[in-house]
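Subject: mismatched residue count in predicted assembly?

I count 826 residues in my input, but I want to confirm that the predicted structure covers every chain. Input:
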Amino acid sequence: MKKRCLSLLLLAGLLCAVLSGCGDSSTAETPESRAAANTIVVGIAQDLDNSLDPHKTVKAGTREVMFNVFEGLMKPTPEGDLTPAIASDYQVSEDRLTYTFTLRDGVKFHNGDTVTAEDAVYSIQRCAAATETGIVPVEAFSNITDIQAPDASTVVITLAQPDNEFLSYMTTAVLPADYDQQDTDPVGTGPFKFVSRAAQDSIVLKKFDEYWGTPAQLDQVTFKIIENADSLLMSLQSGAIDLCAHLTSTQVAQLGEDFDVAEGTMNLVQALYLNNAVAPFDNELVRQALCYAIDKKNILDLAFDGYGSLIGSSMYPAFGKYFDESLTDYYPHDTEKAKELLAQAGYPDGFSMTITVPSNYKPHMDTAQVLVQQLAEVGITAEIQAVEWESWVSDAYTNRQFQSTVVGVDASNMTARALLERFTSTADNNFINYSNADYDALFAQAQATADDAEQTALYKEMEKNLTEHAANVYIQDLADLVAVRKGLEGVTFYPIYVLDLSGIHYTA
Amino acid sequence: MKYAAKRIAMLLFTMVIVSLLAFVAFDVISGDPATAMLGTQATPERVAELRAELGLDRPLLVRYGEWLLGFFTGNLGISYSYHQPVWELIAPKVGVTLCLSLLSFVLIAVISVPLGVRSATRRSQGILSGAETLFNQLCMAVPPFFTAILLTFCFSTVLRWFVHGSFPGLGSDFFGSLRYLLFAAVSIAIPRIAMTVRMLRSTIADELGKDYVRTAISRGNDRSGVLRRHVLKNSLVPVVTFLAQTMAEIVAGSIVVEQAFAIPGLGRMLVASIGSRDYPVVQAIIVILAFWVVLAGTVADLINQRIDPRLRLGGGAS
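Triage response: the counts match. Full output below for your records.
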């Protein structure tokens, strides 16, 4: 008996020694060792589980990471403007139909080849034609009648109709014309080059030494995929990751003192989207009643610890130029008014409704829960139907089989059009079935006008139209909380969903 | 020999059935890889086009036949999501999940067998026995994901024995990886250990009450000798079967625990591929896991036969 006890004790001791001892001196990574090597590990909740070809990317999470790898002739700035990237300069003709881009000298692809006008022509044509399966067609490119490369550093594009926003589509990534491995081994011109991807594990980017502009300050960035929220938080605390965006206010509160928190916006239009073709939401009075019934401020306080920016239409504040602040309080919280409108619409005792929510998005689930309570106050019985994201996309979004849903809609590029065109009655992606003749006319006018100020005014009119007719119950643009390990700085926020790594650096 | 051939045929048959079931299941549930891949950019034409390119517009049995043929010729297909050969994607993960399962299994076997024997032969009395049962129940009830959070808090956040979220990878640091996996294995093992102990205790206690034991002891054999030579051997058959079933539970548990510990294994990959409807990957992983589980069952049967020759199939005596 004594012998057995002794051997058990020895075994336990050995186990402890193995656990605590070995490996400590080996390759175990620490924040300190990464600082010394000038690398960081970034935690992301979504894998880049699709083609890495930028022309095929539909997932915002993939675009966010690959923003560091690809560039177009132009690229977006944090202020929401455009700046020449691969092009050094451009001219627009008097009639606004011809764009002439001059390429920057000696811009290199990550594979060492020099970017030529031919590559730019190839890239734009590839997106315009979209003949290869999987390529996301750029609608605005159907306006191109001719695209030429008169010499190795000039690209001339001719349009059928003037388009004030055409330049913003020139952020389309320029890819080498004679390269066919973009799906798995992408090559671009950005400050970081792609090194490797391990499914459901990590993505590695390395500094591109021959970058034409301000070089990246970090030597290497590893994206670690951790989809479990608890695990993500523990990885921050344990020192496995240095930077993580899109955290919730609850997570931020648990971070501890090793981290600074940078606050930006997610650049999403979060709303209770209403299917305007389905009863009772085909009735404008009902939609307006819902707008009055909802207390947006209360949602932020209850579900987001007060973080977030309130909105009143399909536009978020980061788009300073197009954002109309007066619309935010168009429908003040007023339960009496809501009941009155419901009675007028023929629902004096309220009704029952279903809110479809993609269950993997916690902020939307939390919002829906508060909505259910607020709607109950005016006699509406709302029920949450949690669905998988894939089912949401196919049933609610593509087939428009839903009554109401809480999601965030983002802009695929930096134009007001990207947010507003979807509500024109004929748009493919008009998933709420909004149909308003005035709105369609305003959009047509905005597209036809030459003057930028006039166009901006028209876009604001469109936003107002959405608010007045209560197309949806607009709530907020979610706060983007980024945890950054102390000693690191340089996080920049953009009005689009990207994570720019080029400015991030160690302070010491 | 004939028996082994029979078992291998059974194994193959089971795997074919499992893969067919998986195929059919994904045909029935809602969601479609083409829509999943195109996301919010899906239009009916583009979905139809992509479905045609992926070959999803053909009948189920044709697709299954093709997959089966590919499988037996070593071609698992190309992942819809990653555009990479499936085997290339999952090969590094097979090793990780294998190590995790084996570690958990070893922990269960090494800890529960001596504990079970001890608790059956040296019954504690009164309050101690109550405490033992309570502790056992508690261990059984605690779900692995909760143990995972607890272990991480104790050993990563406080003691810093491992860095949660930085699994080094079997290729780059084998022992470091094993160390990381050990914590995950513990959280899988705890409830199974409790169950195995309880099972062993009741089996051995039953056996100890039998006539032959009384006879053997009354003939003057010493107690521990009888226990070792007769009782243990006779109690082993149900325990080995139970441990084989445990293998299936471990595989299921690893899916949860891999997520909780951020381990890049097959379980996480399986969940993600089901979400994105990446059929080729799902199929491959399901077949691998099925193989693993069925293999454990087969090995258990073979061991049991050595212990108890009566179990041999077609061996006359039944």
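Confidence is low (pLDDT under 50) at residues 20-27 of chain A. Marking this ticket as 'not a bug'.
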